[in-house]
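Protocol step 4 of 6: record predicted structures for both targets in the notebook before any analysis. Target 1:
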Amino acid sequence: MEEAGLIAARVAAYATLMLAAGIPLYLIVSGRKASEESGACRMAGLAALAGAAASLWWVLASIAAMAAIPLLQLDRPIIQAVLDATPLGGV
């Protein structure tokens, strides 16, 4: 079950971050001005926030998988130990 949560976190992170990058790129390529497309800018901002939350979820799910415990059983010492012992902590 934990693997399904990790996969869901990855999908959520990829999808939201593609939107966050894709919406401004679409505006640039189509020649539209961001000031004229406030709805698109809002959507890109919300996608960026959702992407940050999904990325945090992905990190925590990865830590839970490395520690071989369910996501809800993570605590600060386990998170700190995994971050100190892996390259993920440096990132």
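Target 2:
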Amino acid sequence: AGTPIERVHRLRASVRQRLLAASPEGSHGGLMVALAIGDQSGIAPSDWEVFRRTGVGHLVSISGLHVALVGLFCGGLVSVLWRRLPALALRLPAQKAAAIAALVAASAYALLAGLGIPVVRAWLMLVVAVWVMLSGRAVAPSRALAIALLVVLVADPWAVLSAGFWLSFGAVAVILASVGGRVRAHTGWQGAVRIQLVISVALIPLLLAQFQSFPIVSPLANLVAIPLVSFVITPLVLLALPWPHALLLAPADVAAGWMMAALRWLATWGR
């Protein structure tokens, strides 16, 4: 009963309750709920202070990175399975099947996350990317980013007043500028570290303009927190969503504990 949006909100409330109930005693359940459905009400004020001092508060908000990770994971899984089934591959190329799966998974996650403005913005960017891939057109990444920017502005003209708008598109532009035009691109953990360092340095002027402050330990804190949140904690929490249980959430909670211990230590530098 109820409208589709009401049913989504009931589902989100149910997921929140189940996650908190299944979280180990004394755990970082509030952080895991925030990464799963975007509800930050369970994060302790002391943790928010640590996030502020280290400049990693953006990581506990469901952002374009999280939406992209869900899409990439599901799309990659479908691609691997699709290539092993010749009958399906002959009907539809694995690359296009993976793109469709990525969009469907990201759309479901965006609904579960509550369709906040940053999530919708990231979803629109993914829609543009999938459309470009399915159309078979050769579109430069910079042009795809420009199309996504236009779509976002048409859907939400007031987005230009949001700091998140400039930070998200600025980060993507920095990534494209840092990896484009190179004969031998960095891959693996070296590439991830390099991109993170470039983003951390390049966005300092924008952060200063938006917030009039920039924690000196932010680049180092982000270097620690981004891999843990993006590639360990969030995927483990999302994998546990269908069957929330203490045993399934324990690895994510342990990783969250390591991250918070490191951030608290770094936060003392910013006093």
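Step 5 preliminary note on target 2. Confidence is low (pLDDT under 50) at residues 181-185. The chain is about 75% helix and 0% strand.
Proceed to step 6 after PI sign-off.
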